[in-house]
Amino acid sequence: MTGYASAQHGASATGAETDARTDPRALQSRRLGLEIRSVNSRFLDLSFRLPDELRAMEPTLRSLLTARLKRGKVEVRAALENEDSNTLQDPPARLLQRLNSLQDSVKSWLPNAAPLSVADALRLCANAHSGGEDWSEAVPALAEEALTALMSAREREGKRLATMLLDRVKQLRTLAQQAVPMVPLLVEQQRLRFMERWKEAMALTDGATLPEAARDRALTEATAFAIRIDVAEEITRLDSHLDEIERLLKKGGEVGKRLDFLIQELHREANTLGSKSAALDLTRVSVDMKVLIEQMREQVQNIE
């Protein structure tokens, strides 16, 4: 299911700094932001976009996500920012001297190498200054906060999907009830058609008596036709699948894969209904059923 959540530490929602006495994580010199985005997918597909300093936290983040998510294409983004991005700190002279020495050493081996730019020097100094920070506690705590918000968003979407699916179930039941009385009418029409053909055959004999076997053959054909187009079994199974779908949707929890299977069974029954159709009205019922079932299939694939 789709969802989005984000969390930060190092600053409050209004941009004010967090009190270090109430949140030890605020002692970090930079602000950490984390986002989790989720879109629909039949399976769980995780991707991470983390700065180099947080790359070692990927296994921990993956473990947290897989413990609570079962489906979805999920992307985790993290970013580190200075608490005051408008303030540029002066790089230490000792560090600049070290960079200059390293550059001379590199150019002695690679004389054609491009010299460091001011931007390169500032970036390297900033990375060196922040490299000692420990994020091993802050990242999991922040991920749990964002993941909880994401689960709440997915739960709200799940309720909307359940409402839509229950509406489609109701429409399928209505179509099934429309199909039930059609079969006896078709059987009776076919029986009358066979009997008319029997009478026409009798008229063509000019009064001669046809064998009794011919009449029995006509009745046998009518009976075989009735058996061939009988869809009572398919309607019964379809109602049973719809009952189970309603039960699962009301129960909640991890029901996505079971719903996938039931949707496949619904489609099978609708196909059989169409293949047994001997009238245009019954064919239309089958087509309408398959349209509704396909709409359900697309949404069921998004359910956890």
What are its keywords?
alpha+beta, 304 residues, 11% strand, Butyryl-CoA Dehydrogenase, subunit A, domain 3, 9 helices, 2 domains
Number of helices: 9
Major sheet: order of its strands?
1-2-4-3
* Low confidence ranges: 11-28
Shape label: elongated
How far apart are the first and last residues' alpha carbons, in Å?
Answer: 7 Å
- Look up the CATH topology of the largest domain: Butyryl-CoA Dehydrogenase, subunit A, domain 3
Q: What's the overall average pLDDT, rounded?
A: 77
H/E series, N to C?
EEEHEHHHHHHHH
- Known CATH architecture of the largest domain: Up-down Bundle
Q: Give me the count of strands.
A: 4
Number of domains: 2
Strand proportion: 5-15%
Q: Helical amount among residues, as a percent range? A: 55-70%
Compute the CA-based radius of gyration: 35 Å
Protein structure class: alpha+beta
What does the main sheet amount to?
4 strands, mixed
- In the CATH scheme, the class of the largest domain would be Mainly Alpha
What does this molecule look like?
This protein is an alpha+beta fold and 304 residues long. The chain folds into two domains: 3-87 and 129-153, 2-Layer Sandwich (Ribosomal Protein S5, domain 2), CATH 3.30.230; 156-300, Butyryl-CoA Dehydrogenase, subunit A, domain 3 (Up-down Bundle), CATH 1.20.140. The protein contains nine helices and four strands. It has helices at residues 58-68, 93-109, 118-130, 138-179, 182-204, 212-229, 232-251, 256-275, 280-300, and strands spanning 3-9, 30-39, 44-49, 72-82. Strands 1-2-4-3 form a four-stranded mixed beta sheet, with helices on one face. The chain is elongated. The N and C termini lie close together (7 Å).
